[in-house]
Amino acid sequence: MVRELYRKLNFSDFGDERGKLVVAEGELDIPFAIQRVFYIYGSDDSVIRGQHANRNSEFVLINVAGSSKVMLTDGKNKETVTLSRPMEGLYIPKMIWKEMYDFSPDSVLLVLASTHYDEGEYIRDYEQYTSMM
Ligand code: TYD
User: Fold this and answer.
1) Residue 94's domain is classified under what CATH number?
2) Which domain holds residue 28?
3) Predicted local confidence at residue 2, as pLDDT
4) Disulfide: which of 20, 65, 82, 99 matches 108 by Cβ 3.0-4.6 Å?
5) How far is the CA of 49 from the centre of ligand 1 (A)?
6) CA–centroid distance, residue 87 to ligand 1 (Å)
7) Is 52 tagged catalytic?
């Protein structure tokens, strides 16, 4: 079985002479009910974030400003996605190992999550992760 590593989502972009407005509604554009929002900024091209898998959480990542890269793997297949468009989301299913890196100085990476925060559902050791897959 080939596990889904990610899915690209395209949000409605209402642009007019006043600027842009992008909409992402939970359970409609986002394939889950949104329980949590956090955002990452002030990172740069020297750091690697993430480096974990989540037992229970699904995520959608949106670079609302700037750009970053995301490496996704299930321990067998591996893909890299560049995020640089505010109207594009990256859906990440449960139990996918992810690493975010190469942040532009102006990067604001918005993350929508399907769960409330629970450190206990994080797998932060890659060897442990691959042994579970
Ligand atoms: P961390 O998981 O290391 O961030 P990243 O995946 O981007 O590398 O989280 C950094 C800190 O923030 C850590 O102390 C846990 C805390 N945190 C919360 O309290 N709630 C949250 O929803 C998240 C994502 C992190």
Assistant:
1) 2.60.120.10
2) 7-12+22-132
3) 79
4) 65
5) 10
6) 24
7) yes
Is the pLDDT at 111 greater than 90, yes or no? yes
Task: Determine, yes or no, domain membership for 32.
Answer: yes
Per-residue pLDDT tens over the stretch 6-40: 999 999 999 999 999 999 999 999 999 999 999 99
Domain count, the chain: 1
pLDDT in tens, 67-83: 999 999 999 999 999 99
Q: Write out the two tokens for 77.
A: 């297949």
User: Is residue 50, in this structure, part of any structural domain at all?
Assistant: yes
Binding pocket residue ranges, ligand 1, CB within 6 Å? 36, 38, 40, 49-50, 117
| CA-nearest residue, atom 14 of ligand 1 | 119
Examine residue 61 and state whether it is found in any structural domain, yes or no.
yes
Catalytic residue among 52, 69, 85, 94: 52
Is 1 a domain residue?
no
pTM: 0.97
Q: Whose CA is nearest to atom 25 of ligand 1?
A: 117
Closest CA to 96 of 36, 37, 27, 50: 50
